[in-house]
Amino acid sequence: MLRNHELSNFMTDIRGEKLMMELSTMSLSRTLSTIFALSLSASSWAAVQHRYVCPAFVSDGKARRALENVTVYDGAPEERASLIPMTTNNVDTWDMHETDAYLSCEYKGTDKVVTIHALGASYCRAAGYPLVASCN
């Protein structure tokens, strides 16, 4: 939308080329400013947001296997430092502040395990049927 002073320029410069150049430059400038602002807000969000999710299914070559169990560790799972969740309304929550979080995703009918190093996560949650687990 043209502002008052831009509208007066529009009326006096109705000859064509000059008007088109001014409007194009103005639109390009606004477009670039908008893109820059959006990229800054997206990069700020991405820098803060950490999201790690157990895959809902894995394939063992024979069938798709559904997520059945989740274990959260402070440190690599080989160290066996599994953490106990707080359970409220059928939602398991692990407070991960000051820990080196690993999310271990186990699947029904197979020994396949997906282990995710949830670097920087502040909490992990698991709930629902089918089971969904993530760390943020």
Give a short summary of the structure:
Helix content is 30%, strand content 33%.
Number of helices: 2
- Physical arrangement of strands within the biggest beta sheet: 1-9-8-5-4
**Approximately how much helix is present in the residues?**
25-40%
Q: Which shape, going by the Cα principal axes? A: globular
The SSE order reads: HHEEEEEEEEE
Taking Cα atoms only, what radius of gyration do you get, to the nearest Å? 26 Å
Give the count of structural domains: 2
How much of the sequence is in beta strands? 25-35%
Number of strands: 9
On the 0 to 100 scale, the average pLDDT is 75
Structural class of the helices, strands and pairings? alpha+beta
Largest sheet: 5 strands, antiparallel
Q: Show unreliable segments.
A: 1-29, 31-50
Spatial separation of the terminal alpha carbons: 41 Å
Molecular structure report:
The strands form two sheets. The protein has a five-stranded antiparallel beta sheet with strand order 1-9-8-5-4, with no helix packed on it. Strands 2-3-6-7 form a four-stranded antiparallel beta sheet, with no helix packed on it. 30% of the residues lie in helices and 33% in strands. The chain folds into two domains: 4-48; 52-135, no CATH class. The longest helix has 32 residues, at 17-48. Mean pLDDT is 75; it is low at 1-29 and 31-50. By secondary structure, it is α+β, with helices and mostly antiparallel strands. The two termini are 41 Å apart. It contains two helices and nine strands. It has helices at residues 4-12, 17-48; strands spanning 52-53, 57-59, 64-74, 86-88, 91-95, 101-107, 113-117, 123-127, 132-135. The protein is globular, with a radius of gyration of 26 Å.
